[in-house]
Amino acid sequence: MTFNHSSNRIKITLTNPAKENETITFEINYSGIPQDGLIIGKNKFGDRGFFGDTFIIIAPLHYSVVANGIKVEESFLDANRKLTHWHEEVPIPVKVMVAGIARFAVQYVGKVDDIPIESWVYPQNRAEGFYDYAVAIKILDYFHHHIGPYSYKKLANVQSKTRWGGLENANTIFYFENSVTGKGDHESLITHEEAHQWFGNSATENDWHHAWLSEGFATYFTSLYLEYAYGHDRLVEEEKKDRQEIIQFYKKNQAPIVDTTIMDINKVLSTNTYQKAGWVLHMLRHEVGDVDFWKGIRTYYATYQNSNAMTSDFKRIMEEASGKDLSLFFHQWLYTGGHPNLSGSWSYNAKLKEVTIDVKQVQKGAFFNSHCK
Ligand SMILES: [Zn+2]
After folding, report:
1. Structural domains of the chain sorted by starting position, each given as residue range(s) with its CATH number in brackets
2. Is the whole model's pTM more than 0.90, yes or no?
3. Which of 10, 103, 174, 197 could share a disulfide with 160, CB 3.0–4.6 Å?
């Protein structure tokens, strides 16, 4: 066996060709000095903080330390330093491992079943941050009781220096500094990152090309929570907004949602994997009906909780839940680019008292079927 490592990809050439259905296990040992990942610097109040991916942290006493999992040790080492150990017992993807070290004000908001919900904010933003992040308990309660049991032992919502608006780190979500306003402006963002605790962190895609299983789910389950919290009109509003973005995006990119031609993983996140994939779930709910949709979603989560799935796994489970063949649905919405463009006319025959309605699909690309068998 030989291998070649270039452009962040490992190509392995087997000594003998693999047999059909043969499973081959490789152990890959690697090491290196990360060029990026630990953000050290001053926050907007001029206080120093560290945000990165470690779990046993020795820090000066005036810092609080938060990371994935539960706190199993906090020891004062001497007059100046403290050791904090956070331990995560559930398998989580590397992309959502994290630690935050800063001066924090911490509020224990409450519990859903036995899961504590905490807000970690800059002390200067204590009142506003506690107010803004407290909504997390209602959101967790909704997902926990609609999708399936939350996978972790706590949920911390953390004001931080992150380059993103929010980062769904497992049970330790980071939000951008100005997410705290004291006016509850970022409920949608908090909901999106919390939805990722189920889809993206716990049941997560096995391959970047299937990232819609994270982002499309987080997008649509945010809309579902907003519908639950504010009524059906809010869902309609969200879907309309997303549809506009999908139509605009298609003008510059005609690729399908599962686009296996993408080689640069930074290009995986797009309107396709967020908004359009969210719409696919919305249409799927319509296609199979509310009861079977939720049955399928719960089964999918229960089957792939703390594990990995592909689009074909989700399809199989939705087919079992609904008793429908969804091959055409998945093919045309996930593996084919574009959407129907409709043109219509109608006429009235006074003699027969009949209205004739004529609707045509006029898009350049593939033809879309409206119903599956
Ligand atoms: Zn997301």
Report:
1. 32-198 (3.30.2010.30)
2. no
3. 174
